[in-house]
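Hi V.,

You were right to ask for the full record rather than a summary. Here it is.
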Amino acid sequence: MGEGEGEGDGHGKFERTSTVHSPRGDEGIAENGLMSGQERAELIRALSFRLVELRRQAGMRQEDVAEAMCLDARLKSLVSRFEHGAVGNATLLSVADYLRAVRAGFRDVKPVLDRYTSVPIPEPMRHIAEAAPKPRARVTARIQQALTWTGNRPALPGPVMDERSAEELMRIRRRAGYWSLRQGLECYMHHALTAMEVPPAHWLRRRMARYGRRVFGMLFFTRGPKETHRPERFERLHMSADKQQLSLKLAEVMDTAVMRLFDEMQRERDLDWLPEPAEAVEIVSLKPSRRVVTDAQMCRAEWQTAWGRYANATAEVDRRGHEGAEKVLASACPDPRLLQHYRVALIWATRIGADTASGSPQRERALKMFREWRFPPQLDRGLLDRLLNTVLEVWDSARPSLPPAPGPMP
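Predicted structure:
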């Protein structure tokens, strides 16, 4: 390949570019800012030589490698082409198959690849990367300038904010104010649905909460002269709720609850409240799903708290039961070689005490199975019963003080 010729684009065509010298003295950089084919050609040549070395170290011929790669008769020449430069157009999976056939890995070709990837990016290429368009930010420069605006004049000395910036900032503050009210609605619905004793993990609770959000949004955006559209909007919401298998009675219950909250907000003039500019931009810059903590998230957090209390309490009872059983084992002084068998029975006894209540049919069935189980004949049945009774006494005495177990996770 002559000087100034780029590598093929995969279709047998080559692009001719004249090379120039960079300010750092590097050679092989084209005028269009792309790296010339010289370095890549050297990489392909070194990689091909390395593949040949690995094949020879494995004591294999090209036919053996092709057979190990399970290549078709028409593709057996692929191994030869790999070793003569065609590896530049090969897929990563084909190279992996070759390395696997010669019992090698990518670590064996890593030095060759590192020599290529460690070459600094040419100066023109860095200019192209820096000039590439940046991702569109949610907070524009106009909004950043508008953040310094408080009241009717700028808080810091500087140019007065133009009218367009003021309108855009006010629009963002209104949106943030709406999402702040939505957060209050979520807390209100959470307590209301809990008071109605709707289970957190039930599908009905999710649909009622979704319907309540739609009612609040309709009330908020039909204030003032648009209030005449509310009867029609309520009728549409009821039809949509019926399609979602939400009965009209439950929909009316949510209508009453949300309207009560909305009237209270309107009476307290909370509907027109606007957060500070910095807080508003922070709220609006988040995804809509992250701007509020929903009823489902509150239920999940409460469930995790309840589960943590229950798990800590049961772990403490479990520890006390094990300590009592270990004391029984220490006093009985059994054969040390049988301790592991006794501890397996102890784990079973702990499960019986944790999962069943005293006098329940489940407890009776579990005890019958435990006593009829074929333990190793060298174990003392009397000691097994003492371990079982010790653990059950601890669990039965602590059960009334245990916190209730939480239901299914929302």
